[in-house]
Design goal:
By secondary structure, the protein is α+β, with helices and mostly antiparallel strands. It folds into 2 domains: 6-102 and 112-260, no CATH class; 304-404. Helices cover 47% and strands 16% of the residues. The chain is built from 16 helices and 13 strands. It has helices at 6-19, 30-36, 38-51, 80-98, 114-125, 140-143, 146-154, 160-171, 188-192, 203-220, 223-227, 246-259, 305-318, 328-345, 352-373, 386-392; strands at residues 59-65, 72-77, 131-136, 174-177, 183-186, 229-234, 237-242, 270-273, 279-281, 284-290, 297-303, 349-350, 408-409. The strands form 4 sheets. The chain has a 4-stranded mixed sheet, with no helix packed on it. A 4-stranded antiparallel sheet has the order 6-7-3-8, with helices on both faces. A hairpin with a 5-residue loop joins strand 4 (174-177) and strand 5. The relative contact order is 0.10.
Amino acid sequence: MQLLNACVLAHAYDRCKANDGAAGVDLQEFRDVEEYGVERWLDELAQELKSRTYQPQAVRRVMIDKLGGTGKRPLGIPVIKDRVAEMAAVLVLEPIFEADLQPEQYAYRTGRSALDAVKHVHTLLNTGHGEIVDADLKGYFDSLPHSELLKSVARRVVDRAMLHLIKMWLEAPVEETDEHGNKHRSTRNRDEGRGTPQGSPISPLLSNLYMRRFVLGWKKLGYEKRLKAYIVNYADDLVICCRGKAEEALATMRAMMSALKLTVNEKKTRVCQLPEEKFDFLGYTFGRCYSPETGRAYLGTSPAKKRVQRICHSISEETRRNKTQLDRETVVATLNRMMIGWGNYFCLGPVSKAYRAVEQHARRRLRQWLGAKHKQKRVGTTRYPDEFLHDKFGLVRLTKRTASFPWATS
């Protein structure tokens, strides 16, 4: 196996270390590996893989908030040894499968991004594909059928040892900790023959491989051409942009997902008619926008309300009273990093309204934090005017960043 190559394992380790992440069920952290000796640790992993004595440990499951506070999403955290082995497999397999993935698939691929997917949808809308199947799959990562998924891998990979490794990773038990601190292990993935932990290094590649079945089938069976319906996919998010016949496209999509042993979330799946309606995709709201200069209506994008609320919530978390022990420079640097990262993604379409809302919230929260830190009872724009916060303390001005985005409309 190529992943036994020392250079591959070393690069996989560096990639995993760069991602950092929480410890798995064995509580081992990267600093523990460094103290033990990375080269020695990797040699032992290589020997386990070579002798086929390697066995993955349980995956620690934690629940994280979904966007907009709509519930919880399970996240799987493998131990570092399993992360490195999986990453090595990804380094070997990714180039093999890249040529097979469809151009409509944008997630987890070099040279492609969520913004590219957003732009693709925008182009389709402005070429007459204004009927949208806004689709949602229920627990996509937890539903991937192992047998069919391994067949997708085996089309290109004949190495039995590699296939066995992937099967073991798919079937690894999951460990959860309840509210009382008690640990519980489940073998559901192995017992039911489905699911891949969202959060493991190999999960993105496997999820793309299986979604390829749907995207390729849609075209090979002639639905794209006959229904004039075009898929845009990012991980488990997808929309189908249609020039009419959206209801038929939705019914066809349901049937195909059922054949693939995946479940459509009927509560969140709908047909959307533009420009009368709007829909959200990858953090953007698509629908009717108005030019601030001419008042002319057009189909465009803007940052979704939930994403604006989310960044404001994150800003509030970083300026809570329990953070007053930090120095001002640290807090401002944290806020700037968050806001700049958010602005770099939300840079398409008329963004100024969203930027103003985020900027105003950041100023208000920073004033409150300064008041709490310095035990000042009355804190307002008189004590800390806007220009003071931006020019003296260095708080970023999002509303002045649109000039660096040639496609952003202020």
